[in-house]
Amino acid sequence: MGLTKCCILILCFAGVLSNSINISNPDENQTQPFIEIGGKYYLISTTSTMNWFGAMLYCRKYDSDLAVIESEAEMNTLSSYLTTNGNIGKQFWLGLTDLAEEGKFMSIKDGRPMPYAKWSFGQPDNTGRNEDCVHLWPVNNIFHMNDDHCMVLHYAICELRQPKKSCDVCDLKNFIEKFMQNTNLSNCPN
Ligand SMILES: [Ca+2]
Ligand SMILES: [Ca+2]
């Protein structure tokens, strides 16, 4: 077998094994790899931290939304991926918020109630009556969920959008859009 043919075969095989899709952001001419973990494609962004709204906009640029974990299996798969890929000290925004109604956490993806929760002990506690956005944080090296102040800076986990369904549950998205228009988001405490 010729060297070129061999290299092509190896490259093809590597492509299949890694199961990633590159999505480009036309505004900034950047491409990011979405990695398949447990049947969904995620972009785990660890280059810079953002507040929750910034993280939401970041995902949107790559045709995705902040991730919403839908089952214990998904939580375990994603959590073990993060743990084994050097992310144990990091915290990540998810696409869940109770901004619309205190205590009722909703998925930003489809406006439905939070489908699955793995709160860490004592959470959600709405500290300072001002914690409305959900993130993943490691407790004893295992990722759990916590409600946090939306302006705190964390990394983002985006998930690639599934094929479009009719948008009959967009109330929460519309609410967040209005909230963002009327809020000064540049004031981001660290
Ligand atoms: Ca809250
Ligand atoms: Ca909390």
From TrEMBL:
Signal peptide range: 1-18
Keywords: Signal
One protein family per Pfam: Lectin_C
Family matches, as InterPro entries: C-type_lectin-like (IPR001304), C-type_lectin-like/link_sf (IPR016186), C-type_lectin/snaclec_domain (IPR050111), CTDL_fold (IPR016187)
SMART domains noted in UniProt: CLECT (SM00034)
Domain C-type lectin positions: 37-159
Gene3D superfamilies: Mannose-Binding Protein A, subunit A
Full protein name: C-type lectin 37Db-like
Organism, as annotated: Bactrocera dorsalis (Oriental fruit fly)
Lineage: Eukaryota, Metazoa, Ecdysozoa, Arthropoda, Hexapoda
